[in-house]
Write a structure and sequence with these properties.
358 residues; Glycosyltransferase
Length: 358
């Protein structure tokens, strides 16, 4: 922020580690899924560039999160048990899972992919039972309209990312690990569906029966669609893996029916979210500024392109290619705009920081 003379204002604090968003691994999620979509669209060079960029982003964010936990433990763990910010930590699980998928699909490096899969599993267990246990036992709790938003569905995305990586890992594993990994993929796919039904009912109730202001419509509401998109991707991979596991073959009608149900639900959300976005930024004139949470809007667009392509392949439809390409380009443009906003924001912080009084 600057004064009227254009001199940086030294009284306004510069965001630092203490203020870092718990949901910043959404950057890894968004970059990773656009990279995977580019590879599936026959653009290996773009996919490779984004893949190597994502490795660097993941490493930097890991260091920053660890530094924040060490230097600001009260803020770090306080955010984890807060109803509005706690679910943002699930981006670490999903981001790790997406990067694991990149290693397996783009680099055919199943050792690195398997290692990241294990990290994602550990993070999932730790965060899921820490966050939801804390929400359950804490004495002071917000009301529904103040305590829930679309970011809660990141728990679904994190769970389904385990299903996706487990299914990918199973295709290049020998027996009995192939059967076990497919079973883990099936179980987490079902857990993700369970969580979506629970959480979406509460979110929709909050939509319809509580006052809704433009500020309440944060970018993570796009996860309403993104959670269904990654569920579709996981279901499509399970269908493709059915020949590897007899129990998946016996469940094929169920798998196909629910996978199409997930895709149709995600598709239903797109016009609704667009209309709400127009209401927020055009009718209500809510300012459009960079926020780390916007990565939570880029990710669903890329995931929708990817899941539609895989669904088209798994179900042998053959008529969804045009939709896939359209959403890939939309996701790529959204990623570029958001990435430029992030760089501008970082440059602004660096310009202001030297003016801060010790």
């Amino acid at each position: 922020m600057t004064t009227a003379t254009g001199i940086p204002n030294p009284t306004r604090p510069v965001p630092g580690l203490a203020d870092m968003s718990p949901a910043y691994f959404g950057l890894v999620m968004a970059t990773g899924i656009v990279s995977l979509a580019a590879f599936m669209m026959g653009r290996p060079t773009l996919a490779s560039i984004l893949f190597h960029l994502n490795i660097g982003q993941y490493g930097v964010l890991c260091v920053l999160y660890l530094l924040r936990a060490w230097r600001h433990p009260r803020r770090f763990f306080g955010d984890m048990t807060d109803h509005l910010t706690g679910p943002g930590y699930f981006t670490a699980v999903a981001g790790t899972g997406i990067l694991s998928s990149q290693f397996m699909v783009l680099d055919e490096n199943y050792a690195a992919g398997g290692a990241l899969w294990l990290v994602a599993v550990i993070l999932w267990f730790g965060l899921t039972y820490t966050i939801f246990t804390a929400f359950t036992v804490k004495r002071d709790k917000p009301t529904l309209d103040k305590g829930i938003n679309g970011g809660w569905l990141l728990a679904v995305v994190a769970t389904q990312s385990l299903s996706v990586t487990s299914a990918l890992l199973a295709t290049h594993s020998g027996q009995p690990y192939r059967l076990e990994l497919n079973f883990i993929a099936l179980s987490t796919w079902l857990w993700g569906g369970m969580l979506y039904i629970w959480l979406m009912a509460l979110i929709f109730y909050r939509y319809a029966f509580f006052r809704f202001s433009p500020g309440d419509l944060a970018p993570p509401y796009w996860i309403n669609m993104g959670a269904m998109a990654i569920s579709t991707l996981a279901g499509s991979l399970l269908i493709l893996n059915a020949p590897q596991a007899p129990y998946l073959t016996s469940l094929l009608p169920f798998l196909k029916g629910f996978t199409i149900f997930y895709w149709a639900t995600g598709t239903w959300w797109i016009p609704m979210l667009l209309l709400l976005g127009v209401w927020r930024h055009v009718y209500e004139r809510f300012p459009l500024r960079y926020d780390p949470l916007y990565w939570g809007a880029v990710f669903p667009l890329g995931m929708y392109a990817t899941c539609t392509l895989q669904l088209d392949h798994a179900m042998e439809f053959g008529f969804l290619t045009g939709l896939t390409r359209t959403f890939f380009y939309i996701a790529l443009v959204a990623w570029c705009v958001t990435f430029a906003g992030m760089l501008y924001r970082l440059a602004s912080i660096l310009r202001r920081r030297p003016c801060i009084s010790p």
